[in-house]
Amino acid sequence: MTIRNKASYDNKQKLVDTIKVARGEKPCDVVIKDVNFLDVFSGTFKRGDVAIYQDKIVGVGESYDGAQTIDGKGRYLVPGFVDSHVHIESSLMTPAQFERAVLPCGTTTAIWDPHEIANVRGVEGIEWAISQAEILTMDLFVMIPSCVPSTSPELGFETSGATLTAKDVAKFRGHPNVLGLAEMMNFPGLLSGDQDVVNKLFEFKDYKRDGHCPGLRGRDLNAYGVAGIHSCHESTTLEEASEKLTKGIHVLIREGSCAKDAHTLLPLVNSYTSAVLGLCSDDRNPLDIKTEGHINFIVNLALKQGAKPEDVFRAASFGPAKMYGLEDRGAVAPGYKADVVLVEAKSNWRDGFDIVSVFKDGKGTETAPPSNQGLRPQSKGSVPNLNMGPVGIEDFAVKSSKVGEVKAQVVEVIPAQIVTKKKVATLLVAEGKVREDLAKDVLKIAVFERHHNTGGRSVAFVSGFGIKQGAIATSINHDSHNVIVVGSSDELMAKAVNKLLEIDGGIVVASAETTEELACPIGGLMTEKDPDYVSAKLKGLKALARKIGCKLNEPFLQLSFLALPVIPALKITDKGLVDVEQFALVPVLVD
Amino acid sequence: MTIRNKASYDNKQKLVDTIKVARGEKPCDVVIKDVNFLDVFSGTFKRGDVAIYQDKIVGVGESYDGAQTIDGKGRYLVPGFVDSHVHIESSLMTPAQFERAVLPCGTTTAIWDPHEIANVRGVEGIEWAISQAEILTMDLFVMIPSCVPSTSPELGFETSGATLTAKDVAKFRGHPNVLGLAEMMNFPGLLSGDQDVVNKLFEFKDYKRDGHCPGLRGRDLNAYGVAGIHSCHESTTLEEASEKLTKGIHVLIREGSCAKDAHTLLPLVNSYTSAVLGLCSDDRNPLDIKTEGHINFIVNLALKQGAKPEDVFRAASFGPAKMYGLEDRGAVAPGYKADVVLVEAKSNWRDGFDIVSVFKDGKGTETAPPSNQGLRPQSKGSVPNLNMGPVGIEDFAVKSSKVGEVKAQVVEVIPAQIVTKKKVATLLVAEGKVREDLAKDVLKIAVFERHHNTGGRSVAFVSGFGIKQGAIATSINHDSHNVIVVGSSDELMAKAVNKLLEIDGGIVVASAETTEELACPIGGLMTEKDPDYVSAKLKGLKALARKIGCKLNEPFLQLSFLALPVIPALKITDKGLVDVEQFALVPVLVD
């Protein structure tokens, strides 16, 4: 991977012109007068002018004249924020709409692992993702998904939309917007020297190789480091994150919509560490981005927990920029990209800050960025996103020859976490079929294969949703993105799935009386609608989810992670229940 | 420039093997037991084992078994030091001998600007420098000299051995040991948009471009930053260094033999800045390396000034490694190069530390490194280093038609600085010749062109040496490395120069009775002799210099910088006196 230097110019004349502007011999384009700009090198705010010419900062401190003058009023100017690890698909929007949501939050750079569209559309999905970088105002970099599908196809744990070999992913190296290999979730494979994992790591040996290793500690964590992994965004305790940092695994502090680690991990941020930490959103829905914010939300959380602004703003910008070889950004200094955020501190930094304006490449972004959506990912001819037939109540039967009672393994959802617990529940058998138990909050959950029309499906039990009368179905369902549905009855589950078929993917909540839905025509994962539309839709979906009794704050995201067989402890795929700790398919009924 | 990743392997099997070793499934090569290793990410020392396999660190913290076990005894283990900017030529030794001197000091990586040999031998000199990297145990990286000669040939300020165009330097890009363009000393040229400077900066736009801008401040410093310069090692005040750092110019804190800035600049080192600072030796003689140390000496100075070891050891390793894209080193963490230094803190860190042992690529360096010298730089056929004829007393005449007295511009040497002052002295004229004035310490100084046998020479006056009866001559004389001589009389100056001719370059001190000399057969700059030999020779030279009355601690280094017409204020070349502030040749006699 080539280092992206600061002060890079297309031609020599631009270099000469910019030198003149910096010397004050030619006017600059924009001067932000009298501002406290963050010096990410020394760790202090300095007061003075910040001068911008074309896409770069040309002067800091000294007074300048420019075509446009902005009164900084002694406010603070910080480098644009970097989302160091994001699956844009989790915003349910295309990158062009994602930008509309996050650029006003100060996020000027995002490092995207297009893992979801890659699982659905394979190589074509990644090509589409990379093509999106070209139509945006913000800078979008792509990490090439390392684990599609999440588990080795030979294991037969799940049916994915695509399988990407080392050869498939290697061909994306060298594209200027590709920084490396995305999160190596298959850490058991890495530790055992799995050939496909080793091939991928080796193909990307001169690139950044992101990690994903929840709970990995001790010698196994050392082994993860010697494999070349440079980051992890999956720490959930301070001890775990500290050990990773000590071992050279850069910690990306995550605040998604479901996985919320910031409160726990932010004490890690200090003067010393701020150069080697990053902040990230991973999976964050548009409603949270709209109401709380994006990377700026994490910075605000940190300030409220007592972090120094000089430290946390560095971890939000310079830290991840350096980490990913993006040496052209992350500082308010001459030659750096004019990606800057003008902020107003509340009466006290501990109360947080508000964003006044955002500049990307020297241009103000007060007006909405262009809504060019680019091309859609190439469709598979006439094949719909949901390549499966309608379902009926018979598809939800869990048969048992037992009489009276039976013991079943149950996936236990933990609010705001993507790991689950496993438990055993005693359930009634009636007419040869095992019944859900609404009183005990043990519901049916089912997954339908949707990529190849194989008719594959599995049904099991889940607790934690609390649904009393209704069902939730979605085609957004990590990582294989089959159709997953949870509900209070076979009828309402079938209703939800068939509605999802009608809209060709997205999210559906069904009650006895009505349905709410968000259609996601792009791979069954994303819509081209704008952030306001999506937020409003999500609000409606969430309201109906609450109405049918669901007690989770993030029912759709939590449902979306129940089919991911690399996150402990018990998950369900189209092939059945997967005990992630045993790393094996296990029966639903245990006696 | 390609990022050098940690955990890079020649082949996949090595990757798989190393994973096994890190997991404890295979024994490692070396275990340093019970050591306090520096965590450069969190800023703390952690106690435990550090395991090494082949050339890499494979485990930190956990207990390991290895073929060799070293009892760390609770001592401290820090990353190998990086000399972030050095002219190895100033050690008077070849790289192979330089390594013998500095590797025991813990310096495992050096970033070499082979500026001197390039000035003497041009492209061939750089080719030789790069070839040296291959024969060493330590890692040697090369920055390609940007300013050969130091001033534009059209100015006619000096006669150099070679002239390097943008095309000449560009051809070295892409070599794995070449990190970029060396110190851009021609900052006036940069600021005025000089075409050759712009061409060179542009050719290296994807590489690191080092700076050199003593005293540059304000808007001009901003301009230097927008030109892409990323570092400077020439700050002499804390304010100057602070401004550079704020403006994104990484500060390299220098402690050479002549230019000693560490004491002044070390207060810059703290938890925040230690990630973005470096330490360097620039020009350091073998005697100082032997008696005081190298980068370890600067670290010791910092500790004595109250710096925290966690901070200054980071600035000595991780900081510069990151700065130069050397991401495979600078940390004691799995996957990083096993370039580590075992140190013993004195009873208190404030009293400094001693080096116990040094490991390079996992191997102990207790025994002397191999003394393979590699090839000599290609000689120019039968042409000697000193391509000039013998000199006589008539060559030192400064003629004047005045009677009695005359006013002369005098170069005033400042002890331990490479900048000079200019002053005017009244001197006697006898028999049409201006005389030196030993009582006022105004001596003659002369430069003879030695590359092309042009017969070019100039004579002027200097104060500050204090020589009473004797002369010092050298062919090491930045940057053009012509022959420079200072002395108490024309006779002794001629004696010193003719002795220098006899040994074909090096350093000579002549008294009325005797001479001492160090021969430097490689370009008239370096010897292939070992550090002990060179130190002993230097001691002898210095002793005789003191005996002839010289009061400077570093007479040879100070003399060596008197011909460098880009360092203020007044310098002398083979073309005459150069007023650096006016940037013009000026007459010796002013009335």
Write a structural description:
Two copies of one chain form a homodimer. Chain A is of the alpha/beta class and 591 residues long. Chain A has 16 helices and 28 strands. In chain A, the strands form four sheets. Chain A has a nine-stranded mixed β-sheet, sandwiched between helices. In chain A, helix 4 links the parallel strand 8 (139-144) and strand 9. The N and C termini of chain A lie far apart (55 Å). The model of chain A has no long low-confidence stretch (mean pLDDT 95). At the A-B interface, helix 1, strand 3, helix 6, helix 7 and helix 8 of A face helix 1, strand 3, helix 7, helix 8 and helix 9 of B.
Key words describing this protein structure:
alpha/beta; 591 residues; 28 strands; nine-stranded mixed β-sheet; homodimer; eight-stranded mixed β-sheet; elongated
Structural classification of chain A: alpha/beta
Largest sheet of chain A: 9 strands, mixed
Give the strand line-up of the largest sheet of chain A: 19-18-17-21-20-23-22-24-25
Which spans of chain A have pLDDT < 50 for at least 5 consecutive residues? none
Helix content of chain A: 10-25%
> What's the multimeric state?
homodimer
Share of residues in strands of chain A: 25-35%
Estimated radius of gyration of chain A: 25 Å
Net shape of chain A: elongated
The rounded distance between the terminal residues' Cα atoms of chain A is: 55 Å
Overall mean pLDDT of chain A stands at: 95
Tally of helical runs of chain A: 16
Number of strands of chain A: 28
For the largest interface in this structure, which chains are involved and how many residues does each contribute? A-B, 76 and 76 residues
